[in-house]
Amino acid sequence: MQEIVDKIIAAGDKFKIIQQEAKSIYKSSSAEECFNYAIDFYKSEHCQVQELSVFILGYIAPKLPEALSFLKETVSFNSDWKVQEILAMAFDSYCKEIGYERAIPIITEWLNSDIANVRRAVTEGLRIWTSRAYFKENPNMAVTFLVALKNDESEYVRKSVGNALRDISKKHIDSIKKEVETWDLSDKKVKQVYILASKFINKK
C-alpha cells in the first residue's frame, strides 16, 4: 500500500486519481480489508491520503455500518474542506448503492445531526437532488428536506441548501417559487438562502 500512498501524494489535489485508486482497492479487497486500509490511510498527515480513505469508506459503507459511522462521527470533524467535499461524495455513493428511497431514514438522521458538516454532506452530496432516482419522481420530497434547513445556524449549510434549491428550480421552477414566496425574509438567514434559491425565479 505504500506505493499507492506515494502515488496519491505525488498526484497532488487530483480527485479523479484518488477516486480511481480507491475504486481499485475496493474492487480487489474485501470490505473488512478496505475498512482497515481506510482507517490507516485516515491517520496520514497528508490530506490526499485522508481523501483516499474517505472514498473507500463511502464504497464499503453499504456493507459495513462501522464505515458509515466513521464518516459521520470522525470524518465530519476534519478541518480540510477537500475532505468535506469527498465526505459529501461518499454519502451520495452510499445512498446510490442502497437506493435513495431506502436511504431516507439515514438522510433524515444526518440532516438532523448537530454537526454542520454532517448536514452539509447530505445537502451537497445529493446535488442535483432531482437527478437522483426516487427524488427525480418525488421532487417535493427533496424540497421538503432542504427547506427544513433554510435557517440553519451554519452559513456553510445554508449556502448548500440555497444552491441545491436553485438547481431544483431549473426543472421545477413553479414549485420552488411557490415555496420561497411563503418565507419570512426579515430573517437574515432565510433571506440568504432565498437569494440563492430564487436566482432563476427572479430572471423569469
Overall number of domains: 2
Instruction: Please tally the helical runs, counting DSSP H or I stretches of 4 or more residues.
Output: 12
Computed over alpha carbons, the radius of gyration is 18 Å
Number of strands: 0
Question: What fraction strand?
Answer: under 5%
Question: What is the straight-line distance between the termini?
Answer: 54 Å
- Which second-level CATH architecture of the largest domain applies? Orthogonal Bundle
Q: How do the helices and strands follow one another from N- to C-terminus?
A: HHHHHHHHHHHH
CATH class division of the largest domain: Mainly Alpha
Report the biggest beta sheet as strand number plus sense, adding barrel if it closes.
Answer: none
The structure class reads mainly alpha
| CATH structural fold name of the largest domain | Methyltransferase, Methionine Synthase (B12-binding Domains), Chain A, domain 1
Shape: elongated
Proportion of helical residues: 55-70%
Q: Please state the average pLDDT score.
A: 94
Which regions have little confidence, pLDDT < 50, spanning 5+ residues?
none
Give a written overview of the molecule.
The protein is 67% helix and 0% strand. It is built from twelve helices and no strands. Helix 2 (15-28) packs across helix 4 (47-60), helix 3 runs antiparallel to helix 4 and helix 9 (139-147) packs antiparallel against helix 10. The longest helix has 18 residues, at 81-98.
Quick recap:
The chain is 67% helix and 0% strand.
Question: What descriptive keywords fit this protein?
Answer:
single chain; 204 residues; mainly alpha; Methyltransferase, Methionine Synthase (B12-binding Domains), Chain A, domain 1; Serine Threonine Protein Phosphatase 5, Tetratricopeptide repeat; 2 domains; 0% strand
